[in-house]
Structures are given as C-alpha cells and as structure tokens.
Amino acid sequence: MQLDFRSFATGFADPVAIVNTGDDRLFVVQQRGLIRILDLEGNVSETPFLDLSGIVSQSGSETGLLGLAFHPEYYENGYFFVNYTRASDGSTVVSRFSADKNNPDLANRESEIQLLTVNQPYSNHNGGQLLFGPDGYLYIALGDGGSGGDPQNRAQTRTSFLGKLLRIDVDVEDETGYGIPPDNPFVNDETALDEIWAWGLRNPWRNSFDRLTGDFWIADVGQNIREEINFQPAGSTGGENYGWRCYEGNKPYNQSDCLEAENYVFPVFEYAHQGSGCTGSVTGGFVYRGALFSELFGVYIFTDYCTGNIFTIIQTP
Fold it and tell me: Mean per-residue pLDDT for 225-247?
C-alpha cells in the first residue's frame, strides 16, 4: 500500500515523544523541558502542561526531557512520570508529578517526587523511555552511559542501572519511593540489582507494548554498523540479555568477558549502516491496532532518525 504523509501540527522545538492519556489530548514532549498539549484538530496549547526548562539539561544532543508516562489510573490519582537529564550534574532523574486539581491542562510544578537518580558518566546514551506495561508496572529504559563502545562494559554489569530495562512498582512505596515487583528476575540476587528486568542494551530509543497481545518491542541504537529491533514476547519472565557490548546486532563487537552465544537474545530484525555520516539510528514505533488501515493491522512500524526510512515487520505464526 502507498501512504502519504501530511503535516498535522507545527511549532514544536525538538519533540521526542507523543503520549496520550485516553482522551482527545496528545502530550508532546520537547527535549529542552516542555510538555505541550495538542488537540485532535492540530491546535497547540499556548501554556505548557509542564515546564522543566529551568532544571533540565539544555545541551541538546542526547540529554534533556526524554520520557513521559501517565499512570494507568491517571484520571483517579493525577500521577504522571518523567525522565530527564538534570542540568546541574548530568544525572538521569525519574520523577513523579501530579496534575493540577483545578485545571486538567496544567501540571503542579511543585509536586515533584524523585524516584530514581542515575549518574551518567557521559552525555550520550541516556535512553529515556518510560511506559507502563500491561502488568501495571513502570518500565524504564536506560542507555549504557555513553562514550563509544561502552568502555566500562556497564550494559553487561548487573550491578549498574546503565544499559538496562528497569521494572518498578510505583503503587508500593518504601524509602526509595517505589517497590520492587516480586517476580522481577533478579530479586534477592546479590550479583544484580532488583530493579533490572532486562540487560545488554546500548541506547534503547523508543519501546512499546502491543496493546492487543502484550508483546514488547525494543529498538536499540547500534554503534557503527548495525541497528536492531529486539522482541520480548508477552508472558516473558524477564532476565533477557540482548547482547551489547558483546554483540552489535548479530555481529560480535567486543568479546572480552563474554559468554557463549546461547546466553544472549538476538534481535528479530537488524539492518546495516550504509554510506558515511549519520547512516543509522533506529527509532522504535508501534504495532498498528487501528481500524483505518486494515492492511497494517498487527504490523510493527518504526523508522530511522538518520535516513528517514520507514520499516515494517510482519509477524508470522
């Protein structure tokens, strides 16, 4: 089928995510610290829903306000969660905010509760995605901490949050402000952090759950030669090691301190960089479950930041 792309709304600076709460509003995350509301007619609110520009890193590149997720019971409790790079020290911060009780189009700026702070050794590979799974838990995607080639091998180090997918319970609070799901794969394992759900990621940039099946799609940006899409089926018990830095896609990258290949989960799809300059940087998408394009029903759609190419993956039984 042939698809045409049309401009729907303009006026955004460095948008990195669009999130919906289940009504007719779209919340557009801008990297430099603003969340703005877009209606279904393409109109953008003049007043931001939330303005964190005073505390969020303004250096651009891969830092900034990077993720937004609304609590599954947002209309009852008003809670939403953000992932941002703190300007003062470059750390990743995951915080909870509340909507203004008197105005649903405004957040209460003073309601911030910081749940997680992660030191970032470099300014790149922050990851940043936040999303709630079908299980009601909050999933947090973090890159390997940056530089090139993961020099400290953090993605393969289970005592570091970097290069991981984390899974936490935001409805059970302890001294950290959140709880650990009892079925997380490394609970009570002294060699790993309880929050870890999966590991071996370089810079996961946009992940999504299939809203029909619960399957989890994870796009991971490669180093120099490969981009990859990882797949975690619904019902997974977690603990998958997606291979970085031992592998870039299916190709060996740095095999020092690595295990046999059968210990890793390899991507369901990968593609090679071509040419010079910005030749590959995957951006994950969604499995289409709408009614407008029947030919695309059940198809995973994603793109590449550098090339602008749009890809589809069709699952086979």
Answer: 98
For residue 121, pLDDT over 80 is answered with yes
Q: Within a 10 A sphere around the Cβ of 34, how many other Cβ atoms? A: 20
Q: Where are the domains of the chain?
A: 15-287
Q: What are the beta bridge partners of residue 36?
A: 28
The DSSP code for 135 is T
Give residue-wise pLDDT tens across range 17-28.
Answer: 999 999 999 999
Three-state DSSP class for residue 146: coil
- Report the topology of domain 15-287: Neuraminidase (2.120.10)
Max Cα–Cα distance, the chain, nearest Å: 57
Q: What is the pLDDT of residues 285-300, one digit of tens each?
A: 999 999 999 999 999 9
Task: Sheet containing 269-272: give its strands across.
Answer: 204-209, 216-220, 226-232, 269-272
Give the residue carrying structure tokens 């030191």.
119
β strands within 169-279, DSSP E: 196-199, 204-209, 216-220, 226-232, 247-248, 251-252, 269-272
CA dist., res. 7 & res. 77, Å (int): 34
Residues contacting residue 214 through CB under 8 Å, at least 6 positions apart: 133, 134, 234, 235
